[in-house]
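Proteins fold reproducibly. Look at a sample protein:
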Amino acid sequence: MATKILSEAGLSVALVEAGGDWDPAKEEDRTQLRFPWESPRRGASTQIRPFGDFDAAIGGWEMPDEPYTRKNGTQFDWFRSRMVGGRTNHWGRISLRFGPDDFKRKSIDGLGDDWPIGYEEVKPYYDKVDKLIGVFGSKEGIHNEPDGLFLPPPKPRLHEMFLMKGAKKMELPIIPSRLSILTKPINKDRGVCFFCRQCNRGCQVYGDFSSSTCLVKPAMKSGQVDLFTHCMVRKVTTNDQGLATGVSYVDKRDMKEYKLKGRTVVLGASACESARILLNSKSKTHPNGLGNSSGMVGRYLHDSTGASRSGIIPDLMGRQRYNEDGVGGMHVYTPWWLDNKKLDFARGYHIEYGGGMNMPSYGFGFSMDVVRKHILDQFGKPSPNGGYGEGLKKDIRAYYGSTVSMSGRGESVPQYDNYCEIDPTVVDKFGIPVLRFHYKWTENEVKQAKHMQDTFEELLHQVGAIPLGTKPGADTQYGLAAPGRIIHEVGTTRMGNDPTTSVLNSNCQAHDCKNLFVVDAGPFVSQADKNPTWTILALAWRTSDFIINEMKSKNI
């Protein structure tokens, strides 16, 4: 976003990317509409494509040339995506605004800190993002789930209608999703969704949002942007006055180090990568790392919580076949609906739903020993396990389209002791010191996961579904995903009014270095029960406008 806004204002921008260029409209990059047999692994995952061979994201939690470490037996799994557009190439396009309460959580429950800005200051930029990128949804008038400038939402699919019917019995709200996928044209450069349900592969008509196709590609047309690919940034360089002068990077192709000079440096490398760059940017003026006089760079790292459950709806067994693909994500979802003051955990969560008859991919039909007991013959007896050929195919076809899944995505409470720092002994292939993580969930997050599982169990019952597997219990923290697994990490360069307890001011400008800015999720004071992308984009646009005005005033 910063590249687009700054370049269109007439500024010259050097965009430095650790991976390669990527365009889903090019045949060599396209994975959309490819069949499983077009992959040598039939679409199975690989280390650098952990969501499947056709997934758009090139990267993963474990990358052979870019290790990271963990401290004191704690766990944090760090997902990187090395390509232009990064992780926006494969995400679920869930585009939710933070609400008024999300910026002022300490005032509500006494935990964490309030943001130095509120919803009303960000709202104009949410509106701008809605208009520029496009998001579908419905106006619901929910106080902390603000409405946007929506395109028409798609209708619910059959499994979603079953879920809605069951949810109504337990007074659980389910409303149309809010996804950044075009259901109507908004400009001449992007096509409209043609409902192939493969947004995670990257859209060849640019019908969904990724920063590569919707922001970087248009910005390149300005002639003001130089794109540097396959370049790993080592550090931000500074002068004797402590001001940023540019960046030092290693070109992966020749393994040589180069420098770029600039009047202003803007980091948008992702929350943890930006923290890594700052911590590695030591100098006489910034002995603890750039922007780190407070010691807060890397601190208050936090990710969304996540827990899931699935089941089979017997009424959907052997259902009629037809194309119900829809968009590449859920058509409906559940926003947070309860009052935490009446519960034993502090923050809420939303629920995402899955199911339906999308194209079977690698792994479909596995675990038939679990499923077969629910496939009954004309005498009400389950199919025997084992088998092959026609009988096996018949049983697999019987349950195709009958499964539903639900996943909670919740807000965790930021903790000072959840952090990333530089490992003193480990470097990556490029000689750059790597991050070391220290992270533990608190009782708040564990209790929240328990509530998710109780809700899922009740909803499956009300739908008439048969739960698959055993309900997760205390021994597994109620199925709570490991920190980092939801890929919503935020908070490593938090904003605030006090330079002793924050890294950035309310404009995402470093307290210690006036020509350094951060425009990823690092500035977040707290995560909400919502995906962070729309707030990252809104804040980046707001910060870009601030940079433009400061440059015009010759303050930077």
In short: The first strand starts at residue 13 and ends at 16. The radius of gyration is 24 Å.
